[in-house]
Write a structure and sequence with these properties.
The complex is a heterodimer. By secondary structure, chain A is an all-beta fold. Chain A contains no helices and 11 strands. The chains are: A mainly beta, B mainly beta.
């Protein structure tokens, strides 16, 4: 039972354009969401997060949007840079519950020069 | 801080052999997590500890897998006997869960190949 889903295994975007990565979840108890970035041969690193009391959180070029009614979140990267090429994981947890992160399958983002 | 330290970085073993993966969490982090990354399922939680006590091992695939945390600075994940389908990258992560910090810090992972 995949509670967090990233339906696009890969995404290719031209440098300077906007990258949009999508994530869906099924568990309505999730109230905190995170995005992680992973380079080859390294562990995932935290990128940005959002609480369910918000619908948007911005940090520099990265913005995460949350649509609770649709159980959907997205990560926008503007403008995209070659160094953004990596695998991006969406994750969710229930703060009041087990506090264990549930991850999606990941989306490989490639930024083309 | 050196971050979460995992060893070895790479492990190649023959089917049937015992494999032990090691993890040193960040000092002061009271929660430790073991994840496995595969192409099909992404990052799967295997087990997690809070204050050295196993809290949830529902993700451990079979009895061949076991994990221990004898103290706050060390944890092991053991596979005995190993099988080719266990080949994956295994990550350890830790978190203090204080001050609203819910993100984990991951180690660099151990790439396990069972032949």
């Amino acid at each position: 039972d995949q509670q967090v889903k990233q339906n696009s295994p890969s995404l290719s975007v031209q440098e300077g354009r906007i990258s949009i990565l999508n994530c869906d979840y099924t568990n309505s108890m999730f109230d905190y969401f995170l995005w992680y970035k992973k380079y080859p041969a390294e562990g995932p690193t935290f990128l940005i997060s959002i609480s369910s009391i918000k619908d948007k959180n911005e940090d520099g070029r990265f913005t995460v949007f949350l649509n609770k009614s649709a159980k959907h979140l997205s990560l926008h990267i503007v403008p995209s840079q070659p160094g953004d090429s990596a695998v991006y994981f969406c994750a969710a947890l229930n703060i009041q519950g087990a506090q264990k992160l549930v991850f999606g399958q990941g989306t490989r983002l490639t930024i083309n020069p | 801080d050196a971050g979460v330290i995992q060893s070895p970085r790479h492990e190649v073993t023959e089917m049937g052999q015992e494999v032990t993966l090691r993890c040193k969490p960040i000092s002061g982090h009271n929660s430790l997590f073991w994840y496995r990354q595969t192409m099909m399922r992404g990052l799967e939680l295997l087990i997690y500890f809070n204050n050295n006590v196993p809290i949830d091992d529902s993700g451990m695939p079979e009895d061949r897998f076991s994990a221990k945390m004898p103290n706050a600075s060390f944890s092991t994940l053991k596979i005995q006997p190993s099988e080719p389908r266990d080949s994956a990258v295994y990550f350890c992560a830790s978190n203090p869960f204080v001050g609203g910090n819910y993100g984990y810090t991951f180690g660099s992972g151990t790439r396990l190949t069972v032949v």
